[in-house]
Design a protein that fits this description.
Elements lengths: L1 H53 L6 H18 L10 E6 H5 L5 E10 L4 E10 L8
Antiparallel strand pairs: 1-2, 2-3
Helix pairs in contact: 1-2
């Protein structure tokens, strides 16, 4: 009789060990997904800061367009910005045209879809820009 109880106790111990290992594995997967999301947010923040710094005067409106185009290309290389995804974008928005604010007010906006977290992410950074007049 005691032999049957020992086997039952061993099976219960193995079951508890298996459940705890599954929990540890799930925790590891969640921490890796959170780490990736944090990495993407850090990259987006760096990209927004890079654009804000690149757009400091002196530059013209034409050079501003080129700077933003180069930045959008860099954003596609760094963030998961798939062209068909409506939540994926990297843009400089003129707030004067959309909200009637001062012409210098802009917003740097980045949006991307994180496949691991299955969630959209968005970063918005308001900036004040001025441009020099075009040379004649």
């Amino acid at each position: 009789m005691t032999r049957g109880f020992a086997l039952t106790e061993a099976l219960i111990a193995l079951l508890l060990l298996a459940i705890s290992l599954l929990g540890a594995g799930a925790t590891l997967v969640e921490s890796l997904a959170a780490s990736r999301a944090t990495l993407l947010e850090s990259r987006a923040s760096d990209l927004a800061g890079d654009l804000a710094e690149s757009l400091r005067p002196p530059h013209t409106a034409v050079s501003q367009v080129a700077i933003v185009a180069d930045w959008q290309h860099d954003a596609r290389d760094v963030l998961p910005l798939s062209p068909g995804e409506p939540l994926a974008y990297a843009r400089l928005v003129d707030l004067a045209a959309t909200r009637g604010r001062l012409p210098e007010n802009h917003s740097i906006e980045l949006g991307w879809w994180d496949q691991a977290a299955r969630a959209p992410h968005r970063l918005q950074l308001p900036v004040a820009l001025t441009t020099m007049p075009e040379p004649d």
